[in-house]
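R.M. (postdoc): so does anyone remember the format we settled on? I'll just put the structure tokens first.
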């Protein structure tokens, strides 16, 4: 980190990228992107600075896109659904199974 001119701090591109990666990795652990930004920025840099870096890399937090934390939850639910469908398929191969499992679309 270097001080330049009127007190404006300069950070290396490597440091900036590392901070943004930490936010992305932390999305699963925090309720929102903002919570991840605040927690990670608290250790080293101003929250606004990190928020701007994340916005530059990921886009605005409020868009028509699905938020990253929701996307992670959706991916996990799809994985669980796939596993459940495999179990239903496996059970349907055994006609002696007393309880039939029905899957509604």
């Amino acid at each position: 980190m270097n001080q330049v001119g009127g007190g404006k701090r300069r950070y290396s591109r490597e440091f900036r990228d590392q901070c943004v990666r930490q936010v992305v990795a932390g999305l699963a652990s925090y309720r929102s992107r903002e919570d991840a930004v605040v927690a990670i920025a608290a250790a080293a840099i101003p929250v606004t600075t990190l928020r701007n870096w994340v916005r530059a890399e990921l886009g605005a937090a409020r868009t028509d896109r699905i938020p990253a934390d929701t996307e992670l939850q959706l991916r996990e639910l799809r994985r669980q659904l796939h596993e459940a469908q495999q179990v239903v398929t496996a059970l349907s191969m055994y006609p002696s199974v007393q309880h039939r499992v029905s899957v509604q679309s």
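R.M.: ...and that's the designed sequence above, right after the tokens. Also worth knowing: The CA atoms of residues 68 and 104 lie 28 Å apart. The beta strands are 2-4, 8-10.
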